[in-house]
Amino acid sequence: MKVLLTGAAGQLGQALQRLRPNAIDLIACDRQQLDLSDESELRTAIQQIRPDWVINTGAYTTVDRAESETDLASAINANAVQVLAEELAKTGGNLLHISTDFVFAGDRNQPYPPEAKRQPLSVYGATKAAGEEAIAQLLPTRSLIVRTAWVYGLGGRNFVTTMLRLMAERDRLTVVWDQIGTPTWTDSLAAALWQAIAQNLTGIHHCTDAGVASWYDFAVAIQDLALERGLLQQAIPIVAIPSIAYPTPATRPAYSVLDCADFNRAIGRDPLHWRHALAQMLTQLATN
Length: 288
Ligand SMILES: NC(=O)c1ccc[n+]([C@@H]2O[C@H](COP(=O)([O-])OP(=O)(O)OC[C@H]3O[C@@H](n4cnc5c(N)ncnc54)[C@H](OP(=O)(O)O)[C@@H]3O)[C@@H](O)[C@H]2O)c1
Hints:
The protein is α/β, with parallel strands linked by helices. Helix content is 40%, strand content 16%. The chain has nine helices and twelve strands. The strands form four sheets. Strands 2-1-3-4-5-10 form a six-stranded parallel β-sheet, with helices on both faces. It has a two-stranded parallel ribbon with strand order 6-9. It has a two-stranded parallel sheet with strand order 7-12. Helix 4 links the parallel strand 4 and strand 5. It is globular. It binds NADP nicotinamide-adenine-dinucleotide phosphate. NADP nicotinamide-adenine-dinucleotide phosphate (NAP) binds next to helix 1 and strand 4. Catalyzes the reduction of dTDP-6-deoxy-L-lyxo-4-hexulose to yield dTDP-L-rhamnose. Keywords: NADP, Oxidoreductase. Belongs to the dTDP-4-dehydrorhamnose reductase family. GO terms for molecular function: dTDP-4-dehydrorhamnose reductase activity.
């Protein structure tokens, strides 16, 4: 099976390459090799490679900067996705597209099921929602949209690597406690995505690790587990603050836990609790 991967240098792209099943012929393209903002390059690539699947992990992911770079975010997160769906509709290929909890408003207090209404609060969320809508229109029966959340992994820019750097540099940290979600390790997500492709899953699904946390809880766990592994030398105080005390250009959902039950059932997955996944990732980091 021939699979074309976009955004290969990203944290999820790297994990998908590390965990590639042997039977997959993977053509992994980073931004230099395949620029999602170049529509004609994208159309030519699909027509020439004619992949059985495209896994689209490439995205404009700088959530705050998207508020002022709307056109670029839209070109990558919405228009490129539309182009992929149009070309795959012609070639007969399938599309696995990665989307986000930020398509939701975050005003519930129960996990979001896949069919919940999209109501993005930010430009990033709106562009990702537009990408999803294009797929639903253009490639409804040969597409799989997997929304995930709070992703971190080795070799990526993410909350875990940022916290480890700040915990080593500073003598105190403040972290918000009133945004709730589920931290998700790239490697558990990538393994689930390969499984979903093997089973030809279609539709809209949710995939995160198990459990819930605030960013504050996540930060405390990072410090505890990093200290145990010698990744940090000393503990610093971590102070919980409300989001209102840490204003950002983009508004984030207050509660964006995703209900992954259907997806887990469909692929026979028993997800790791996020703290156990974090422990595994930090062990890898400490022994690398
Ligand atoms: N990170 C999260 O917390 C999170 C949460 C929910 C959903 N997601 C979704 O999960 C997917 C993977 O995210 P990630 O965490 O792996 O993000 P990431 O590490 O930021 O990777 C995204 C990749 O996309 C590439 N890219 C940006 N513009 C491009 C372009 N014009 N053409 C081709 N590639 C381009 C980036 O290239 P450069 O390295 O050159 O910038 C980067 O390698 C994305 O669809 C994202 O929306 C992420």
